[in-house]
Amino acid sequence: MKTTVNHRHLGKSVSYRRLIRLELYKIQKHILGEKIYEPYQSLW
């Protein structure tokens, strides 16, 4: 969970733990009807 990956939209490295948290925020906004959910896709 501490391993980091480069997040292309943020332009910096984030841990998998932080990446999951960011995805949960996006899902929350989708459920509340604020924004359409677009999942993170890693481009290897």
Automatic annotation (TrEMBL):
Domain of life: Bacteria
GO terms of molecular function: DNA endonuclease activity; metal ion binding
Membrane-spanning segments: none
Signal peptide residues on this chain, from the entry's feature table: none
The protein's name: Uncharacterized protein
BP-aspect Gene Ontology terms: maintenance of CRISPR repeat elements
InterPro entries reported for this sequence: CRISPR-assoc_Cas1_C, CRISPR-assoc_Cas1_HMARI/TNEAP
Species: Tepidibacillus fermentans
